[in-house]
Amino acid sequence: MTLLVEHVGFTTVQDAGRRGWAHLGVSHSGAADRGSFHLANRLLGNSTGAAVLESAGGVAVRATSDTFVVLTGAECDAALNDRPVSHCQPLLMRAGDLLRVSTVRHGVWMYLGVAGGIDGPEQLGSRSHDTLGNIVPLPLDNGSELEVGVLQGTPLGMDTPVALRDTERVGITAGPHGYMFRQDDLVDIFRQPWTVSGEPNRVGIRLMGPAVHRHFTDELQSFPLVRGAVQLTPAGELVVMLADHPTTGGYPVVGVVLPLDVDRLAQARAGARVTWQWRQV
Description:
Blueprint: E1 2-7, E2 11-14, H1 34-44, E3 52-55, E4 59-63, E5 67-80, E6 83-84, E7 91-93, E8 98-114, E9 145-147, E10 170-174, H2 183-191, E11 194-197, E12 204-208, E13 223-224, E14 229-232, E15 238-241, E16 248-249, E17 253-257, H3 259-266, E18 273-274, E19 276-278
Parallel strand pairs: 10-19
Antiparallel strand pairs: 1-4, 1-9, 2-3, 3-8, 4-8, 5-6, 5-7, 5-8, 10-17, 11-12, 11-18, 12-15, 13-16, 14-15, 14-17
């Protein structure tokens, strides 16, 4: 069984990512919105880490034999043989059927899962495309043919699609570099709203907000970064690390976003308002 990719758009293959390689400068990578990724596999009866297509739109695939697929994540305009299809509802594609996702309407990343998962070679234990590290086990081009694994479970639909949450009251914990700021300045960073700026990508999300003043001006030595780390740049912007983040950095980390809320930020488009809520861990 294969899927023929007739049009790629901005689409990559993603799974649960690659663990244990940060010491070599290799990011975890994997799906940008982990919740939507796992939902796609649950609805299809796949293993939890089965590879899917992650797309910002413009992707079209044709089935070479009968199979089930599902769309999760960002809300999008999608059609099977020119007939609109539902979100979070497994679809039976017959041999020769064409599924086209044209436009993402709300959110950034849409997930196209296929029963059995996308199969093929791995690099460092994963099929995920790392856009920063240029690790591409399964490159996609118009006309690419993707192998599909064996169906393991029974596809199940949902009565109501799972809608993306907004970015109000994003949970955040303290970062390691609070000593570089006056206490009032540090509180003000997360007391006021910030705004998503720039085009979405898989490496990090950039935020603009109130002016922030550092108490210390000493340069930091490079230190490890994790998904969700919030760095403050010299320009006074916040950058939240996403799936393909660098493994080290030199800007102060003023907070760390809770894992489930990183999914929310990964789906935020330019202009979205972000507010914060301090959490204890």
